[in-house]
Amino acid sequence: MLINITQAKLDTRQKTLITAALLHNATTSIVFSGDGAYAHVVEQAFLAECVSKSNAESVLHVHVIKEDATARGVTLSQAVNPLDYQGFAALTSTFNQMVTF
């Protein structure tokens, strides 16, 4: 599942969806785009917890659109993969399911 986060903060329901996706999919990718570039900083503890739950059957990849982070003055943490828009487009083609919030 591909989850595109465009909001600066996640609510409880969104966190529950991310946790459930991680538990039920072989691969889950989260992309922080637009104002979501802030969320990767705000939600660092939650993301670290999710990454710690990753295992051989359930893998979580965390990406941030680097242009969006730069435009908002957000420094990318080492826990995320910088992604350009071309890479994001390529990533979307690898998933059958995509959720944006």
Characteristic terms for this protein:
Hypothetical Protein Ychn, Chain: A, alpha/beta, Sulphur_relay_TusB/DsrH, DsrEFH-like, 5 helices, 101 residues, Sulfurtransferase complex subunit TusB, 5 strands, five-stranded parallel beta sheet, 23% strand
Structure overview:
The protein is an alpha/beta fold and 101 residues long. It has five helices and five strands, in the order βαβααβαβαβ. The protein has helices at residues 12-24, 36-42, 44-52, 66-71, 85-92, and strands at 2-5, 27-32, 59-65, 81-83, 98-100. It has a five-stranded parallel β-sheet. Helix 1 (12-24) links the parallel strand 1 (2-5) and strand 2 (27-32). It starts with a strand and ends with a strand. The model has no long low-confidence stretch (mean pLDDT 90).
Give the total of domains: 1
Task: Label the CATH architecture.
Answer: 3-Layer(aba) Sandwich
Q: How large is the count of helical segments?
A: 5
Average pLDDT number: 90
Content-based structural category: alpha/beta
Neighbour order of strands in the largest sheet: 4-3-2-1-5
- Gross geometry: globular
Percent in strands? 15-25%
Query: What is the fold-level CATH name, i.e. the topology?
Result: Hypothetical Protein Ychn, Chain: A
User: What is the makeup of the main sheet?
Assistant: 5 strands, parallel
Q: Using only CA atoms, what is the Rg?
A: 12 Å
Regions with pLDDT < 50 over 5+ consecutive residues?
none
Number of strands: 5
Query: Considering DSSP H and I runs of 4 or more, what fraction of the residues is helical?
Result: 40-55%
Reading off the top of the CATH hierarchy, the class is best stated as: Alpha Beta
Q: How many angstroms does the end-to-end distance come to?
A: 14 Å
Q: Would you list the SSEs in sequence order as H and E?
A: EHEHHEHEHE
Give me the CATH superfamily. Answer: DsrEFH-like
